[in-house]
Specification:
Strand order of the largest sheet: 3-2-1-4-5-6-9
InterPro entries: Epimerase_deHydtase, NAD(P)-bd_dom_sf
Family: Belongs to the NAD(P)-dependent epimerase/dehydratase family.
GO molecular function: oxidoreductase activity
Radius of gyration: 18 Å
Order of helices and strands: EHEEHEHEHEEHEHEHH
Low-confidence stretches: none
Keywords: NAD, Oxidoreductase
Largest sheet: 7 strands, parallel
CATH topology: Rossmann fold
Mean pLDDT: 97
Protein name: NAD-dependent epimerase/dehydratase
Number of helices: 8
Number of domains: 1
CATH class: Alpha Beta
CATH architecture: 3-Layer(aba) Sandwich
Length: about 270
């Protein structure tokens, strides 16, 4: 029997949102898909809400009658400050206000490794390590992690913040041999976050069961997430097609990878 009457998925047209659209079907009688464009054909259990997260009234309206929100919407990468401010920061505030006003009890938020990207790989940090964003994108993740903490402490809305590392069909480079999160494990992580009896305010790393362990996720063991995939079957192919990187480069030294080598997104490009 589905645990929820209605789950709202923001960013439902995105790379991970599309996987969650399929993977979370057993958990809810109705799944409301949120995006900026119509979704086209909908399954019998699906409904759509077309709006921009920057639109406070529309975003709050989309949360009505939902008992859980899987918030994967917002800027997907480092980009112009105004975009991050409107979609990721203001947009997430609108989501939490909708949750507060409409009695939503649990939010699953797509945070990112870039919230802690300037920790060194060798530091083997846990989920309680200080934030060290590597970008304005990472700062937006820090903001929503803090916002969700406030809404748990003050308003009793539970949140699981998933610091997703590299979730793609398969590892594309040597960094992903330790940072890889398979699509199936991503769905398992969100499912565990939705079904755990009590989560309060939880931060969890989103990473598969890769051979090389770079972080300690034991602080989120109460979610009951057990990754079943690994980057290891892809190792030989990845190592054959990608050169060994310079270990002194920030993209190798820090958890955030190439984000640590980016400049400010609003600077004029060099000719």
């Amino acid at each position: 029997m589905p645990q929820y009457e209605r789950i709202l998925i923001t960013g439902a047209a995105g790379r991970l949102g599309s996987e969650l659209r399929k993977g979370l079907v057993p958990l809810a009688k109705t799944i409301r898909l949120a995006g900026r464009e119509p979704f086209g054909d909908l399954a019998a259990h699906e409904e759509e809400a077309v709006f921009d997260l920057a639109d406070m009234e529309a975003t709050i309206a989309a949360t009505k009658d939902c008992d859980a929100i899987v918030h994967f919407g917002g800027a997907p990468l480092e980009c112009a400050w105004q975009t991050i401010l409107d979609s990721s920061i203001r947009g997430s505030y609108h989501i939490y206000e909708g949750a507060r006003k409409h009695g939503v009890k649990r939010v699953i938020y797509a945070s990112s490794v870039h919230a802690i990207g300037y920790h060194e790989v060798e530091a083997h940090i846990g989920v309680d390590a200080p934030v060290r964003p590597d970008s304005l994108y990472g700062v937006s993740k820090n903001f929503v992690e803090s916002l969700s903490r406030l809404y748990w402490d003050k308003f009793g809305i539970e949140t699981v913040c998933l610091r997703i590392f590299s979730s793609f069909p398969e590892p594309a480079d040597r960094r992903m041999l330790w940072s890889y999160l398979s699509f199936a494990d991503c769905v398992r992580l969100v499912e565990a976050s939705l079904t755990a009896p009590r989560v309060g305010h939880t931060i969890s790393f989103g990473i598969s069961d890769n051979k090389v362990k770079t972080v300690d996720n034991s602080g989120a063991n109460h979610l009951g997430f057990h990754p079943q995939d690994s980057a290891e079957p892809h190792r030989s192919a990845v190592e054959a097609k990608t050169p060994v990187p310079d270990p002194k480069r920030p993209s190798v030294k820090y958890l955030g990878g190439w984000f640590c080598e980016l400049g400010h997104p609003d600077d004029e490009p060099k000719s």
